[in-house]
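So, can you check?
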Amino acid sequence: MPAYVVFMRDETVNPVELEAYSAKVDASFEGHDVKFLADYGNIETLEGDEIEGAVILEFPNMDAARAWYRSSEYQATAQHRFRGSRYRGFIVEGE
């Protein structure tokens, strides 16, 4: 079953760190089977607090999604995101 990684950016706290993350994150996908379904497009909030942006990534399964997220390449890059913004993220299994 496919699995989806969803990130929601709640607030930017350091634009320089967030720019560093954006400049490096694409390299973390090398060797991973990933499809971008949404990448900071127009957002209409239906419920809850508004967010600044969202990303939805599709992987072949939960293990593949976890492998990318937990990879040393992504975790090194993610440190910039952690310093640059407040996000929520999760993996959800599809059908």
